[in-house]
Amino acid sequence: MSGKHRSGRRVVTRSEYILKRLLIIIGCLLAVGVILAGTVKIVTIVGRNRLAGNANTEGPTLTDDSESGLKTDPVYASDWQEDWISFEGKAYKYNDQIRTFLIMGIDDAHKTGEVDYGDLTAGGQADGLFLVIFNPVDETIKILAVNRDTEVDIVMVGLGENGGDKWIRSEISVQHAFGGGGEYSCELTRDAVSKLLYDMPIHGYAAVNYQAIPMINDSVGGVTLTLPDDMTDAVGVNKAWKPGTSVDLKGKDAYDFVHYRDVNVFESQRMRLARQKLYLKTFVKKMKAETKENITLPVTIFNNAKEYITSDLTVDEIGYMASEYLGYTFDEDDIYTMEGETKTDEEDYEYFYPDEQALRELIIKLFYTEVDRQ
Fold first, then answer.
1. Are 274 and 137 contained in the same domain?
2. Is residue 43 domain-shared with residue 115, that is, in the same domain?
């Protein structure tokens, strides 16, 4: 027997050593993955619960389209629910699973930290108002565009007698301007839109200054669309933008497309709203496609543009929305506008008046489900 000491342990070959290290590394990665997955799940749950609790109203106040309704109908009377309504001979129930998000396009050059809150008219007008509707029942995304000239009751904060508030009838867009800027302007505008829609609950908002549009647009690689009207002579555009021309909107082009209107043309707001509707339809599809490749894109965009955005959404709520609604369908017909009439006053200011019956029908279509009595 030789004098060499043997420990009794088998000699490990290099290949076995490498395999063992790989198994350890894989195990660590799996563990990290489980932890991260759990964290994402927790953030998602927190975001979902917070978003549900953000509603500014308890529920819509839409009522029956007739005095009798269906409450006395034997088919419905025995178990009629307080939150049911009747419309054209059918019963409907509000879909409380829906989550709504108001996007405001603000015609203002200030960054969020530069707003003069002492100036009660410094908020900038909400020239774009879009209520995004997420419906978990049929897994769809729909958008309701609100005409910025819609006449509603607005409050002029601090501009009444002795520094109090003053209520007037005016375009819904100016409510944001008369809130002093920042979150309060957003809340007042959100509530004005909600009231217009029979106190429809709104679960979140984002006011985006138009200066942020080039950045947001380019974050998805730009938007390509076909021009619906002639913008060749648009001030500040100066391009051969004729109807039917396909354009690749990058940078300031996106801003020009959604912002410009000729105030000397009657109902120029409707023309701009049609362009904004087209842009949103194209952008949302591009955004969904890009987010499928990079789930963090919505949060990245929000962080990059946040100096031009005022929002009550938290990062976990944005993360929840990105993960939850990514698979929802959004078609070219899923952007809706209100029917109505535009009139001018004695000073040639334009005001839009929704058709009440058409508005009721649209609200029921977007926010209600028919009560099945079979």
1. yes
2. no
Q: Could you give the maximum distance between any two Cα atoms of the chain, in Å?
A: 118
Residue 20, domain extent: 13-52
Provide the pLDDT confidence category of residue 35 given band limits of 50, 70 and 90.
Answer: very low
Question: What Cα–Cα distance (Å) separates residue 321 from each residue in 99, 129, 130, 316?
Answer: 10, 20, 17, 9
pTM greater than 0.70 = yes
Is 346 exposed, middle or buried, given 0-12, 13-18 or 19+ CB atoms closer than 10 A? exposed
344 vs 83 pLDDT, higher one: 344
| Domains: count for the chain | 2
Please give the C-alpha separations between residue 179 and each of 174, 233, 276, in angstroms, as whole numbers. 9, 34, 25
Same domain, residue pair 169 and 285: yes
The string of DSSP letters for 182-216 reads HHHHHHHHHHHHHHHTTS-----EEEEEGGGHHHH
245 and 269 within one domain:
yes
Q: Are residues 326 and 364 in the same domain?
A: yes
pLDDT tens-digit series, residues 153-186: 999 887 778 878 888 999 999 999 988 778 989 9
Backbone φ and ψ for 99, nearest 5 degrees, come out as -120, 135
Same domain membership, residue 76 and residue 223:
yes
Beta carbons of 47 and 316 less than 8 angstroms apart:
yes
Cα–Cα nearest to 172, from 198, 151, 191, 155:
151
